Amino acid sequence: TDVLKKAEAGIYKKDKIMDDMDTLIISKYFKKMDPEVYQIIDDVKKRVVFKKFNLKSDIFSITYDIIFCRNVVIYFDDETKNMIYQKFYTAMNENGYFLVGPTEGIMNDERFKYISPGVYVKNVPKGNEP
Length: 130
Hints:
Layout: H1 2-9, E1 11-13, H2 14-17, H3 23-29, E2 30-34, E3 37-40, H4 42-45, E4 64-69, H5 78-91, E5 92-100, E6 112-116, E7 119-122
Parallel strand pairs: 4-5
Antiparallel strand pairs: 1-3, 2-3, 5-7, 6-7
């Protein structure tokens, strides 16, 4: 829960964001708290949900545009992985993104279309679009 509180606060040290993001993006979506600390603006924070979740037993109550599940599923057996991937697939909006660790490739799973290492998009079979 402490990690979730930290994530919800959206506070980052300058050196953690400056190397990876364009200054225009930073000025648009972050506010400077002091010379070395930035915070994500409230308009962005209110659109993001951080939640403690048991992947094996909990049920998603809403749908998502993007799901991050990095370096977690690797610890489960194939049957459990399949069940978890189905939960994610069902909980994703059409064209929703699914991000896993770059070494956690999802092999031969027609539910997700590969975009780049660790990045997948929900694959909606032709004729099943809303």
